[in-house]
Here is the input.
Amino acid sequence: MEFILTEIAQTKLQNWLKGVVSNLHEVKILRTWVKAPLCLEARNVIMLSIHPRELNLDWLNKLYLKEASSELALLQRNTLMEKECNQLKKELLEQKLMMLEFKTATKAKLEEARIREDKLIRSKEEFKQEIKEQAKETNKIMQQMMEMFQK
Here is the structure.
């Protein structure tokens, strides 16, 4: 693993140096400062005698670990937020279900109360009619009694 990382680091460094060399030709340098064109070659910077095992690339590992740890923390935070979001969605659905059950129960109770009210109104009207009929009968009986007393 360490050998692969050193090879990757060495390749990246060589590619970077090649980019620097190719970009130096595009840079304009004032002749008052430098009389000869500036040129850098990768083989002058990295000696061939240095073996990849001798390179100390701990700084590169720390850099990758820092980037990975921040990405890992972000992924963990996202995972926690997704779990919390799913939990909130579940609670919201449960509350909606409870609300629908409450609405259904309330509508049923209102319908039941309306039916009872209609029955009460009908029975009140029937009671009024019955009382009127009894009052008429009582009045008839009273008239008949009055007529009997008058005779």
Q: What stands out?
A: The longest helix spans residues 58-150. Confidence is low (pLDDT under 50) at residues 30-35. Residues 1-55 form one domain. The chain has three helices and no strands.
